[in-house]
Amino acid sequence: MKKHKIEVMIPREDIKRKVRELGELIEKDIKDSDNEVICVGLLKGSAIFMADLVQRIDHPVKMDFMSVSSYGSSMETSGVVKIIKDVDEDVEGKDIVIIEDIIDSGLTLNYVKKFLLSKGAASVKICTLLDKPYRRKAEVFVDYVGFEIPNEFVVGYGIDYAEFYRNLPYIGKVTLLD
Length: 178
Prior knowledge:
22% helix; alpha/beta; transferase; Rossmann fold; magnesium; globular; glycosyltransferase; Hypoxanthine phosphoribosyltransferase; six-stranded mixed beta sheet
């Protein structure tokens, strides 16, 4: 791992407040649904965010996970999405809320949304903690956005650098040192 420093970009209290707001928005949207609701977290980055978020939804929801990759071992997307772990739940006729940690290119989310709809999901919405909309390579509508951030490399609250720093309770900006 290259030498680096981490500066707090989004403090823990701001994240807690935003997670509460997102939970309330999702609950408002799903409260009148006659369908089962499944929150599908994209591993590994969304795990902490999803755990906190579903506790803020006062409506019965199921939790499931997918593991997908378009990055391989690179820091830039390959454009090819690979499903490593599919959902365990049958999504046919269900309302799905995809929970993501950060969206940049949109390629992965675009693919996952189409994939879940092709499996018969009644609806698919997307919730992300962090959004970098100016990095889009695929058009994807994000229903619930926590924070729009600049094109910075970030870690914390589930997001990693070489699998480290997921445990930080805040979002931090990583600066590589010479």
